[in-house]
Amino acid sequence: MTAPALELRGISKVYPLRVPGGWLPRFSDHHAVRDVSLVLPRNRILGLVGESGSGKTTTGMMALRLVEPSAGRILVDGVDITAMDHAGLKPYRRRMQVVFQDSYSALDPMMTLAQIVAEPLHIHGLGSKPEQTEQALGWLARVGLDRSYGNRYPHELSGGQRQRVAIARALILRPSVLVADEPTSALDVSVKAQIINLLQDLQAEMGLSILFISHDLSVVRSLTDEVAVMFNGRIVEQAPTEAIFTDARHAYTRSLLDAVPVQNPRERRHRTFLTRAQLEAATPRLAQADLARPALSQAAPQLVAVGPDHWLEAVVT
């Protein structure tokens, strides 16, 4: 059996936070991500959604080892990279690339666009300098920018153009996994659609596996094959995209869907405003007969199968 492009097994991230007051420093643990497991199949797009602070970006950065996990394992093409040192990890850096939310901060203002796009080739020692430049110009054209843009600088571009440059830089190494962290959140509607169409075309052409992190459920529905919903550092629901949008089972997922803007006022959902305590209290309670697969009966919430490829955080009685 072919291993998935990316797999996260029970990863967690804990940050020490200083507690104010007192003469001596005291710290408490902040659990940004709690025991998250995800599988990103080859040539598929997995959406990771949730409100700000839910832990989705931290999860994506841990998948790339840009943030070190406190616990759990990260596998790329079936190989555990969790404990690899810098030298051992470098070949896997070529297979995993990222597009950040803020394209302006992600691009060096002192480098031309050709230099920016060619930089990964330089880092990995691939080709001569003229060959690197030629590939960079080719990739600029591939993402919809004229080759003449190679001599320009990031401040001369619009937000959508900068994001195209960021995509070209990420894909010039022909990775198998791309983590896209809110790549369209700072763009207007028309430019957002262009970037989504570009990602779809490149994903189909290159056979990319994409972890698409977003809070924009309209974009997620149009782009992804499967969606995992994060709340308070945990996965609370995961299912094929249409199942999430038509048969959401968790109260938090339904509250996210209620907030999606619609063009037809008659299709507008009734907004549900729930506090974190109310959402925690709304964790479903299921009997074994409600499950598609047997699970442990316990008081603590766990992810259980409630349908074909549909997982829900619930208490099993």
Describe this structure in words.
There is one protein chain. 32% of the residues lie in helices and 28% in strands. The protein has eleven helices and 13 strands. It has helices spanning 56-63, 86-93, 103-106, 113-123, 129-142, 159-171, 189-206, 217-223, 241-246, 251-258, 276-281; strands at residues 6-19, 26-40, 45-49, 71-76, 79-80, 96-99, 177-181, 209-214, 226-231, 234-240, 285-286, 298-307, 310-316. Strands 3, 6, 7, 8, 9, 10, 11, 12 and 13 form a nine-stranded mixed β-sheet that branches. A four-stranded antiparallel β-sheet has the order 2-1-4-5. The model has no long low-confidence stretch (mean pLDDT 90).
Q: How is this fold's topology laid out?
A:
Blueprint: E1 6-19, E2 26-40, E3 45-49, H1 56-63, E4 71-76, E5 79-80, H2 86-93, E6 96-99, H3 103-106, H4 113-123, H5 129-142, H6 159-171, E7 177-181, H7 189-206, E8 209-214, H8 217-223, E9 226-231, E10 234-240, H9 241-246, H10 251-258, H11 276-281, E11 285-286, E12 298-307, E13 310-316
Parallel strand pairs: 3-8, 3-9, 6-7, 7-8, 11-13
Antiparallel strand pairs: 1-2, 1-4, 4-5, 9-10, 10-13, 12-13
Helix pairs in contact: 4-5, 4-6, 5-6, 6-7
